[in-house]
Design brief:
This protein has helices spanning 23-28, 103-120, 137-145, 194-211, 225-228, 248-251, 254-268, and strands spanning 17-19, 75-76, 81-86, 124-127, 150-157, 166-171, 183-185, 220-222, 234-239, 273-274. It is 26% helix and 15% strand. The model is unreliable at 4-17, 19-73 and 276-282 (pLDDT under 50). The strands form three sheets. Strands 4-3-5-9-6-8 form a six-stranded mixed beta sheet, with helices on both faces. A two-stranded antiparallel sheet has the order 1-7. The chain starts with 16 loop residues before the first strand and ends in an 8-residue tail after the last strand. By secondary structure, it is an alpha/beta fold. The longest helix has 18 residues, at 103-120. It has a domain at 77-179 and 187-274: 3-Layer(aba) Sandwich (Aminopeptidase), CATH 3.40.630.40.
């Protein structure tokens, strides 16, 4: 179940910023997060397992983060890594259906199949969680933002909708709006990547439409909280619906969803670039 961006940002200081294009510029250049002295880390939820994260040299968190941006503008980059985010987890079960079906458990099982399908296509996969923990929204985004040559896919199950369909969402219009110093707020990190996210979303949605009758042919736009703070091409994939009587109906969708995501990402790979410092949409 998707969360709207109007929900408050957790675990990020109000003066948190990204420098230059967005955080991804710095991590692509090998730079590290530099935490602000006014915004110490105050995580209120569990962290993703350390071995799943590509940490910065200082091991810093996104709170109040800034980083140096390289001088390069738009440039080709090799897409190697897909960050797969099984939504919810821990005390946050997400949407709940009859018979005890929990979104957090369904998407974790989906993520395992998505990983296998992506690896078959030659991609390295990093999962934001592998068990019943609940990294914060910003912990999940930080994992994605720390990758070199990565994209982000978050998995959800809707509480409503036509059963056995799947939809891809990209974040609604979110201008990067840097200030005079070139800083971009953490909460607008997705801004420079909206065009790329749309390309990725349409490719994955096209694959899903071929497999699941009644699914849209193109990606939908929504204010998705988890995508907003991700400084990389990012999509949300949501299957319908948690209200089925038998979880097996959802589980049967997993191979098709996984294959659609993997094929869509592979088709997107040749167009993958790093957004420029002005936030231009490729």
């Amino acid at each position: 179940m998707l969360l709207d961006v109007r929900n408050p940002i957790r675990n990020v200081a109000q003066n948190g910023f990204l420098t230059g294009a967005v955080m991804v510029f710095a991590v692509f250049a090998g730079a590290a997060f530099t935490p602000s002295s006014q915004a110490p880390a105050q995580s209120q939820t569990s962290q993703a397992p350390a071995q799943q994260v590509a940490p910065s040299p200082q091991g810093a968190t996104p709170q109040g983060a800034t980083a140096q941006a390289p001088a390069a503008l738009s440039q080709r980059a090799n897409l190697n890594i897909v960050v797969v985010d099984p939504a919810h987890g821990g005390t946050d079960a997400g949407a709940r259906g009859t018979g005890g079906i929990r979104e957090s458990e369904v998407v974790l099982d989906f993520a395992a199949q998505v990983q296998r399908a992506l690896e078959t296509q030659g991609f390295q996969v990093v999962q934001t969680r592998r068990g019943n923990e609940n990294p914060s929204f910003d912990d999940r985004s930080a994992i994605a933002n720390a990758q070199r040559g990565g994209i982000f896919v978050t998995l959800h199950v809707s509480s409503t909708g036509l059963p056995s369909t799947a939809r891809v969402y990209v974040n609604a219009d979110l201008p990067s709006a840097p200030d005079a110093s070139g800083l971009i707020p953490w909460g607008r990190a997705q801004g420079p990547f909206l065009g790329l996210s749309r390309k990725l979303g349409d490719l994955v949605q096209g694959q899903l439409a071929q497999r699941f009758k009644g699914s849209p042919s193109v990606a939908q736009t929504a204010a998705v909280r988890q995508l907003r703070t991700t400084a990389a091409p990012a999509i949300a994939v949501e299957v319908s619906s948690i209200s089925v009587d038998d979880r097996a109906e959802l589980d049967r969708m997993a191979p098709g969803v996984a294959d659609a995501i993997a094929r869509g990402v592979a088709a997107f790979k040749p167009t993958y670039i790093v957004a420029n410092a002005a936030g231009a949409q490729p």
